[in-house]
Design goal:
The chain is mainly alpha-helical. Helices cover about 90% and strands about 0% of the residues.
Length: about 190
């Protein structure tokens, strides 16, 4: 696959790993009692059936679309494309912090719980990395076009970029559905 071998993709994976390690470090340095309470409350909401799935779905979709929109728009505004790299680092930090805190709170069952939550997050992050890859690519092509005074068919170029964004957004919505309706039911069986 051409994307996986590209330097941009490798940079994005490196940034994700750096973010993941920063997430673990920030967990080690944080107040674990406060974090334990938050996780226990969240899991008990799911376990007791008090988790509002519709609100959770809405929040998940809005959050994911917000990030994907910013990644997409920053690709168009190539001056801001570097912010997309920070979004990938942030996603890595969130993932590292989440996994560390769940394993710390629930020990062995936390490992299984982390794996359940990891499925959703890996899918989310994979979509965000692909979207970031295409936004950086779009920004580089746009910048090179302006710099070299070349003419390209922006209509087709932009149309493909919009189609990619819409496909990735639909995938994010499906992953949100999976997260809320499938993963939350799996969590009930683990904890």
């Amino acid at each position: 696959m051409k994307i996986v071998r590209s330097r941009i993709f490798k940079l994005l994976i490196l940034l994700l790993v750096v973010g993941f390690l920063l997430g673990i470090i920030s967990f080690i340095l944080s107040d674990k009692k406060e974090i334990n309470n938050d996780i226990i409350n969240y899991i008990s909401l799911i376990k007791n059936g008090n988790f509002n799935k519709l609100l959770g779905l809405y929040n998940s979709i809005v959050s994911n679309i917000k990030y994907s929109f910013f990644i997409w728009i920053f690709g168009i505004l190539f001056i801001f494309v570097f912010i997309n790299l920070f979004i990938i680092v942030y996603k890595g930090i969130s993932l590292g912090f989440m996994i560390s805190s769940i394993i710390y709170t629930y020990k062995l069952s936390g490992l299984i719980l982390s794996l359940i939550l990891l499925i959703n997050n890996i899918l989310y992050i994979f979509i965000f990395i692909l979207l970031t890859y295409y936004s950086v690519n779009f920004a580089i092509k746009s910048f090179n076009t302006f710099r070299n005074n070349r003419l390209i068919n922006y209509k087709d170029f932009f149309k493909n970029y919009i189609i990619l964004y819409l496909i990735f957004t639909l995938l994010l919505i499906f992953i949100s559905l999976f997260e809320i309706y499938i993963s939350s039911n799996l969590i009930k069986f683990v904890v």
